[in-house]
Amino acid sequence: MATGNWTRINAFILMSFSSLPAEIQLSLFLAFLTIYLVTLMGNSLIILLTLADPMLHSPMYFFLRNLSFLEIAFNLAIMPKMLSTLLIPDTAISFLGCATQMYFFFFFGVAECFLLATMAYDRYVAICSPLHYPVIMNQRTRAKLAAASWFPGFLIATLHTTWLFSFPFCDNKVNHFFCDSPPVLRLVCADTALFEIYAIVGTIVLVMLPCLLIVCSYTRITIAIFKIPSAKGKHKAFSTCGSHLLVVSLFYISTSLTYIRPKSNNSPESNKLLSLSYTVVTPMLNPIIYSLRNNEVKNALRRTFHKALTLRTHFIVILSPLYTSIRLKPSC
Known about the structure:
Elements: E1 11-14, H1 22-52, H2 59-87, E2 92-94, H3 95-128, H4 133-136, H5 139-164, E3 173-174, H6 181-185, H7 193-226, H8 231-259, H9 268-292, H10 295-328
Parallel strand pairs: 1-3
Antiparallel strand pairs: 1-2
Helix pairs in contact: 1-2, 1-9, 1-10, 2-3, 2-9, 3-5, 3-7, 3-8, 7-8, 8-9
Protein name: Olfactory receptor
InterPro entries: GPCR_Rhodpsn, GPCR_Rhodpsn_7TM, Olfact_rcpt
Membrane topology: Multi-pass membrane protein
């Protein structure tokens, strides 16, 4: 039952960084816009490279392509509205818009948890069963694993968003830069004890289950690597896992600090700072990590760049006589 007066909420106000001076908000807008564009370009480049280069058609890059697509979609759900709150005075978001933003935030966030676990399993098969790797991770299997990674996000996002937005709201000021669950839940004027239990248990399960799968995969990988006799072989095996481990660490550390902290330590400002790490910074770093730490991606980038230069040269050679003839043609 509701514990106070409440009215029908048609829109929410995102407080974002409104407490900061206008000059600082403009600086944040420029910084976040730059990061946003780098994120879109970096992840789009990973997708295009893994599609265009035949050397990157392995299961590992199939899952990397899924991760890059997920990061782009995740950013599109949050960043445009956040940028607008830093630039224009009107920071309102409709009731449906807020629910939609939260839905896609949980959908893509949960999907990333399970996709990272799937990528760890892929590395486990590649290192521990290299001879059977092409058979085990065939095209059909990798498609099923990708679908299985995305499906939990649909279930959790639907349940969580529908349940939370069925509550009555006493206020409409969301002290955050997007419609995240904790700041929206603070506006509810009803008994939310059961929902909070579900949220805590669900968060722990969703974070710990994929994390446990990743730990198990890398435990087996580490044992297999130490059995490799040559130092060069060990280094090569570790190098194929380094980028994924770094991405996993960035994602899980920032997520755990945000959602599995004691409630007494959860201040709105600290939550905003921590949320920036996995909503803004991590999606930008992922393509950079995979590009700088992966020789195959760097080589593919060089090949693609070389092809582009070659095509440009061919076009110039073909069009040059035509351009010359047009210039030399006498006017009437």
